[in-house]
Amino acid sequence: MEAVAVDEITRVFEPRRRSGTRVVALDEVSLTVPTGEIHGLLGPNGAGKTTLVKILSTVLLPTSGKARVLGHDVVADTEAVRPLIGIVFGGERGLYWRLTGRQNLEYWGALYKLSAREAKARAQQLLERVGMVDKADERVEEYSRGMKQRLHLARGLMGDGKVLFLDEPTTGMDPLAAREFRSLIGELRDEGRTILLATHDMVEAEMVCDRVTLIDRGKVIATESPRTLGRVLSRFQRIDVEGVPSAVLDEIRAMHGVTSVTAIDGVGTRIEVDEEGATQLVLERLVGAGATSVRTSLPSLEEVYVQLIGERGMEI
Amino acid sequence: MHGLVAGFRLELRLVRANPDALIPLVTAPLFAIIFLAIFRQSGRPDLESDALMAPVLMSLWWIALLQAGTMITGDRWQAVLEPMIAAPTTLASVLLGRVASLMCVGLVSFFEVWAAGWLFFGVSIPFEHPGALALTLLATAFAMAGAAVAFAALFVMTRNAYTFINSASFPFYVLGGVLVPVAFLPGWLQPVSSVIFLSWSADLLRASLKEPDVDDFWIRLAVVIVLGVISFAIGRVLLHHILRRMRANGELATA
Questions:
Q1: Closest-approach residue (CA) in chain A for B245
Q2: A79 at the B interface (CB within 8 A)?
Q3: How many angstroms separate the CA of residue A49 from the nearest CA in chain B?
Q4: Is the pLDDT of residue A253 over 50?
């Protein structure tokens, strides 16, 4: 059984005022996540990631389409879905800031129908797991952003959900904490959980996810493993080389399928191609010129992302 | 049951962390002193029990209206409403638990006003019917809780809940006969008062303190409870529809 099955989900936000704009946040989005997979939802701000996470976690109704979590419809069968999931929305809010971290977790445990003793024990366990034991009995209002983020993660795990929805979970974390978090994600998957990770952090998606769905303006652009997505644009390979005479580089620059030949900080030269077969021709010419330090690479997920979605910059 | 207990404990912790919720416990004895002074000056010692019961009802009402009535709005602003909705426990049960907790806190005002009356004015009123008094207080707190759930649901959808809360208290004190019995109101207002549980509670509390016999006690008590149940039922239905609407419109979280 698939852990998550999304079938042509559409979500439209109608304007509240006449002067407002109708927003199609999701446009017939379909995807499936098998049990035990870490699946990334990668896209820029406003792509629809959070909207999809909210629909799957039953806090938002879709306009049309169907979605199921562990076989249960998220609209018709919310009572069956809710005990099975955990959500981490993150951010500065989302916790009772006048209570301590521990008190927040114990409350959430009670919402997941844990007894007082069970909630206490699980809260302690999770506080240890996310490295928050020392701060557990301080008020949330005194926590840093990163601490709140860790507590959000602990809160999302209180229900021991089989499917976890993580929405930008490492926002505000320092690099070390983010790395520890990624390690934790792996542990959670090893425990048999399925994880849907919404992020705009390409490095994180590449490091953690089994597969990634690229989403933009409410539409799915591609769903593949991070490596395969890189191969989708394999024609955009790059060749890094050292010690090649400039005459040879000029010759390569004029070859069909070569898009650029640029120096790399005085160390060598990067040659980029955009056609299948061009790589081989370039390599043959370089070897023929006696070049010995040659390296080819696929584009990173970031480059795939930018190539497919485009240089939108700050524009939403 | 889990939600009820979870809500009850949560609210006690929140009250301890944020003592603003205890303001009625400060104002109740002050109101008692004011009313007692007025009645003493007017030569009406027979109204001393009214002077003491009114602040208790006012405190419970204020808690129901302001504290409980803005619970969902507050949770929404703190962005805890969404994850709460996604949890297996229903919001209505949690809400009821939280409100019940507040009502327990509010009932402390009963002891405060009597202490204030005794300290400042030497008031010593024998409890004619202590059992009836206790049951009426409990039924009143229950009905207040029911009303609070209805307010909580209603106030989520209003932009100016606080304006309504600030202006709605005193009309209900009048219509509820909290200080001045409903019998003294114009005749055309009395049917309106009869559907407000406060009026029944206030009359029953006065009767249980003063009168040799409390006529039709069980029927009058039942009316308080039934009106409370109706309030809760209305609140529950409203809450269901409002939450569904919020889920449909994506309004569970504020921007």
A1: A61
A2: yes
A3: 14
A4: yes
Which of A60, A96, A139 lies nearest to residue B78, judging by beta carbons?
A: A96
Rounded to whole angstroms, the Cα distance separating B94 from B145 reads 12
A257, A275 contact by CB (below 8 A):
yes
Decide if pLDDT at B65 tops 90: no
A132 vs A102, A177, B130, B157, CA distance in Å?
A: 9, 11, 51, 37
Say if B219 is an interface residue toward chain A (CB within 8 Å).
no
Q: How far apart are CA A159 and CA A161, in angstroms?
A: 5
Task: Look at A253 and B189; give whichever has higher pLDDT.
Answer: A253
The interface pTM score, or ipTM, of the predicted complex is 0.86
Task: Look up the pTM and report it.
Answer: 0.82
> A202: how many CB neighbours lie within 10 A of its CB?
19
Both tokens of A65, joined, read 């389409």
Contact A112 B247 (CB under 8 A): no
Q: Look at B206 and A55; give whichever has higher pLDDT.
A: A55
Q: Is B22 on the interface with A (CB under 8 A)?
A: no
Instruction: Give the DSSP letter of residue B183.
Output: G
Provide, as residue numbers in chain B, all residues whose Cβ is less than 8 Å from the Cβ of A112: 87-89
Q: What is the pLDDT of residue A316?
A: 46
How does residue A275 score in pLDDT terms, banded at 50, 70 and 90?
A: confident
pLDDT of B13-63, one tens digit each?
A: 999 998 888 889 999 999 999 999 999 999 988 888 889 999 999 999 888
DSSP string for B131-174: HHHHHHHHHHHHHHHHHHHHHHHHHHT-TTHHHHHHHHHHHHHH
**In A, residues 157-176, which contact B (CB 8 Å cutoff)?**
159
3-class SS shares of chain B: helix, strand, coil, % to 5: 80, 0, 20
Residue A107 near chain B (CB below 8 Å): yes
- Residues A217/A222/A228/A232 CA torsion (nearest 10 deg): -90
Task: Fill in the DSSP letter of residue A255.
Answer: S
The reply to whether B93 touches chain A by the CB within 8 Å rule is no
